[in-house]
Amino acid sequence: MKPSEDLFQLIKSLSKSEKRYFKRFCMLYTTGKKNNYLKLFDSIDKQKIYDESKIKEKFKHETFVKQLSVVKDYLSKLILRSLIMMESNRNLFYELRQSVAECELLMLRGLYKQSYKKSVMVKKLSYKYGFYILILELLGNEKVLIRELNSKKQNEILQEIVSEEKLVLNEIIKIRQILNLNRELMSLLNEIGVPVRSEKDILRIQSISDKFNNISILESSSYQSKTIYYHSRTMIHMAINEYNSAYKYSVELYDTLKKYEYLSSKDPRNFYGVLHNLVLISIHSKNYASAEKYSKELSKFLNDSLKNFTTQTRNNINLNYFILQLTFNNKLCKIDENILLIEQSKEYIKMYEYSISLPESWDLFCEIIQTNMLNDDWKNALHYTNLLLNNNGLKMKSDLKLIINIYNILIHYELNNVLYLDNITSSFYRYLYRSGKEYPLELLVITYLKKLLLAKNKPDFLEILKMLKLKLISNDNTTYEKHLIEDYYILDWIESKIEKKSLKEIVLRRIR
Asked: What is the pLDDT of residues 177-199, one digit of tens each?
């Protein structure tokens, strides 16, 4: 049987600070010399791939190696105890859970008054921070304590505890309902991708939304109930491009985080997430004043709080914030600001060029392509388009891949690369047909772009573009398609060709 790697994986999951804490914790079990557990810990920690035979060889003269599996098991328990102890010093839930255990120990020793006094204090804090599981345990203990203390109002107090228990149970059930629906929602969004475009998938999302409608969120509802509920409702409406509703729920979430700032400050990612979404939703809702307001607050929040995040989270947030800045400036046609941002971040962008197969590159380069298109820098736009389309290892989001292919064709039209146009247009046309999916908008656009290649003269070329514009405006487009036409400048590009103006001029006119 292959030796278990559980201990190896546990040790490798530890951060540097957790390893340091464990070693100090482990010294409690040391009798002078470095103990066997620390020796084993250090040896396993140095291994890149777990090899138990090397461990046995190294410690062949030590008596503990004869019972290595027992020592490994105890070392695992020591590590977990140290993590619990460490968490209880920095995580209020673990600290209060330890206090619940202390209440029970006092009760078992017959120190009922001390136990009850501590229980009341711990319960008050648990209510404040929404730890309902702990409250339920404390209420169970209180039933015993009230009987042992022989209170004159024993029956009355016990009845109050039972009533309180029902309220707590109802809140726990509500939290579980919301959590289960949230998991169902996120699993579905991971499966079908965002934004959702097919009617079938939209109905699946709306089915989950209907289940949320059956959950009542009251002023008395807990912080946890409210935050998960409002976040889920925001994600539902963002996924199906209903930005006005998404904005409403996102503001509710923001207000909840503000109201319970002492709670939300424990995990500042919540504040980052809601502010990021509020900027993005405001942009898509064309509420640019709101986008400006929350963008300033987001910038200030990051300046104040970014140091509190782990390195990995900090890197992810920096990228998301960079993309958000590019998106915001593109939508307001603040192209000079984006050019400056891109220039200042050349080395940062190169890092993603080298690791182009990472999903994080998709939205980044799409925004850079749009910036270059609006700046009339079609050669640079082509560079980033090729970067995405020519990378076989890039598992691009399907809908983004479609728009990048359309951009590729528009860019070649701008550069008058006639030799490439017939090939890439026909190739994309075949891809859409062979995909087996319904892409009515993309098929409409590509059909007319193919017709442009057959235009005999300038008037014919303009007439085809006018027909395409009319089709795009008059078609019964879905919410997603309307978003696609506007946010990705498809109609703007057509109008720029008809009116012989730059893309930037057309976009500026529209947003004003």
From this structure: 999 999 999 999 888 877 787 78
Residue 393 DSSP code: T
Structure tokens at 458: 């300038």
pLDDT, one tens digit per residue, over 284-337 is 888 889 999 999 999 999 988 888 777 778 888 888 999 999 999 999 899 999
Long-range pairs of 458-467 with CB within 8 A, sequence gap ≥ 24: 462/497, 462/498, 465/494, 465/497, 465/498, 466/498
Contact in structure between 506 and 499 (CB atoms under 8 Å):
yes
Say how far apart CA 316 and CA 335 lie, in whole Å.
24
Q: Under a CB-based contact definition with an 8 Å cutoff, are residues 223 and 265 in contact?
A: no
Instruction: Find the largest Cα–Cα distance for the chain.
Output: 101
| CA gap 7, 29 in Å, rounded | 19
What span, in angstroms and rounded, lies between the C-alpha atoms of 194 and 399? 9
Angle at Cα 305 formed by Cα 304 and Cα 309, nearest 5°?
155
Using CA atoms, how far apart are residues 408 and 183, in angstroms rounded to an integer? 37
CB 196 within 8 A of CB 202: yes
For residues 282 and 354, give the distance between their C-alpha atoms in angstroms, rounded to a whole number: 33
Q: Which of 140, 118, 126, 115 is nearest to 92 (CA)?
A: 126
CA distance 351 to 301: 26
pTM: 0.78
Under a CB-based contact definition with an 8 Å cutoff, are residues 75 and 15 in contact?
no
Can you list the alpha helix ranges (DSSP code H) found in 91-222?
Answer: 92-108, 112-129, 132-148, 154-192, 199-213
Q: Average pLDDT in the 407-418 region? A: 91
| CA nearest neighbour of 249 among 263, 261, 237, 260 | 237
Answer yes or no: are the C-beta atoms of 236 and 208 closer than 8 Å: yes
The owner of tokens 């109201």 is 259
CA–CA separation, 85 and 22 (whole Å):
10
Sequence-distant contacts of 172-177: CB under 8 A, at least 24 apart: 172/132, 172/133, 172/136, 174/215, 174/221, 174/225, 175/132, 175/222, 175/224, 175/225, 175/228, 177/215
C-alpha distances in Å from residue 49, one per residue of 12, 41, 43, 79, 130: 10, 14, 12, 20, 42
Reading the block at residue 291, the tokens are 């986008």
- The domains located in the chain, with CATH, are 6-90 (no CATH), 92-165 (no CATH), 174-309 (1.25.40)
Give the three-class secondary structure for 370. Answer: helix
Judged by DSSP in three states, 431 sits in helix
